[in-house]
Input
Amino acid sequence: MERLKFASVWLGGCAGCHMSFLDLDEFLLELAGRVEVVYSPLADLKVYPEGVDLCLVEGAICNTDHVELIHQIRARTKVVVSFGDCAVTANVPAMRNVLGAKNADNVLQRAYLEAAASNPVKPALDGILPPLLPKVVPVHALIKVDHCLPGCPPPADRIKALLLHLLDGAPALSGAQLKFG
Output
């Protein structure tokens, strides 16, 4: 049986969605028999591959690295799922938007200097931090999203229900002649 190529991505967020994913407990063993994990922060794979069948995207788009990666994901993935409220609405990461869309440096000033309890130092060397976008946005603001799974984080039972739906032949996957199960 051909296994589905599965990826998960963590952009601007807290990793709570991936923690909820780990709460799938015994279902993770079944899932491991049905998918090949080709990219994930849980597996620490560095390059997003071609030919991915399904990707869960956690987090909002906050910086230029996220923009580059989300476009790679869409170009290389059959089914993209906005995974959790940060991906779906930009949620908590978008709170920085009130600090000023014109100058993302306001965010760095606040985080590294003003809010520092001790040793306030802002990273200043090129390449230390990817440039921040003027405004944090949800995934669908930049790419077509096939499914949204809201929640902060989404509960494990909802993650399981979506995965089973997709693994058992949702139109977006079965249309590609993929049937897993």
Q: What stands out?
A: Strands lie at 4-10, 35-39, 52-58, 61-63, 77-83, 132-137, 147-149.
